[in-house]
Amino acid sequence: MNELSRPDDGPLRFGTEVFYASIGRAFVLMCAVIPVLFLIEVLNWTSGYDLVAASGIEPRQVAGLDGILFAPFLHWGFGHLYANSIPLILLGTFVLAAGVRRFLWSTAVIMVVAGLGVWFLGADGTHAGASGVIFGYLGLLLTRGIVERSWWNAAVAVLIGLLYWWQLAGILPSEDENISTMGHLFGFVGGVLAAIVFRRRRPKRAADPAGPMNLPDFTLPR
User: Fold this and answer.
1) SS3 of residue 57 by DSSP
2) Domain contains 221
3) What is the extent of the structural domain holding 182?
4) Can you give the CATH number for the domain in which 17 is found?
5) CA–CA distances in Å: residue 126 to residues 101, 102, 156, 170
6) Is residue 222 part of a domain?
7) Bridge partners, residue 33, by sequence
8) Three-state secondary structure along 118-160?
9) Kindly report the CA angle at 37 between 36 and 40, in degrees rounded to 5?
10) In sequence order, what are the residues at sequence separation of 6 or more whose Cβ sits closer than 8 angstroms to the Cβ of residue 63?
11) pTM greater than the 0.90 cutoff
12) Into how many domains does the chain fold?
């Protein structure tokens, strides 16, 4: 039986050298994402926020459908981006550490589900920000902890929830026009869906280690 077909998360089993190395590399990569978002925000700010106005999600407007792809990279000011940066790094690190390909596919599912939820049911106005993705990662880690019996994933999600409960409470209905409740809710739903679809199965024998949809699990390159 090779490493990837071992139970208990194989080489990514909690406490192994590979586990900690993968977490470290994922953290560095997620930290590198933040300057890119700030650069985008600088361009957005210098344009008088025309960038977010043109590329955000406009509910029930055909012209606003492209926001499903672009809105997570845009924010309504630096304060908005600051608020999203730390939970994005922390949650994204643990999602990315489980495999690059699973991370990319899961993020895509979260963006589409959250974006469509906002487009169909969101309040009027332009919606933008990475909070839908953040809630998606939260839902993904919680669900992954259950479906893969990887309790450290669930523990991470609970810890982040305790640290940032004031922000994560945005999944609840709110009259605050600055909070995209539908984006948060459907982002969480997208994360749950991604965790189930792209879960790592526990093989009974030397089964296909790729799991659902033949997506191989591999740690970040050394």
Assistant:
1) strand
2) no
3) 3-214
4) 1.20.1540.10
5) 31, 30, 32, 17
6) no
7) none
8) HHHHCCCCCECCCHHHHHHHHHHHHHHHHHCCCHHHHHHHHHH
9) 90
10) none
11) no
12) 1
Residue 125 · residue 183 · CB < 8 Å: no
171 exposed, middle or buried (CB, 10 Å; 0-12, 13-18, 19+)? buried
Q: Using DSSP, state whether 90 is helix, strand or coil.
A: helix
Residue 220 within any structural domain of the chain: no
Residue pair 113/165 in contact (Cβ under 8 Å)? The answer is: no
Percent helix, percent strand, percent coil in the chain, to nearest 5: 70, 0, 30
The amino acid at residue 74 is L
User: Contact, 78 vs 45, CB < 8 A?
Assistant: yes
The four Cα atoms 126, 171, 145, 99 give a dihedral, to 10 degrees, of 10
How far is Cα 126 from Cα 134, in angstroms, rounded to an integer?
Answer: 19
**Gyration radius from the chain CA atoms:** 18
Tell me the one-letter amino acid at 140.
L
| pLDDT 10s digits, 15-71 | 677 878 889 999 999 999 999 999 999 999 999 999 998 999 999 999 889 999 999
118 within a domain of the structure (yes/no): yes
The alpha carbon dihedral of 150, 152, 156, 157 has a sign of positive
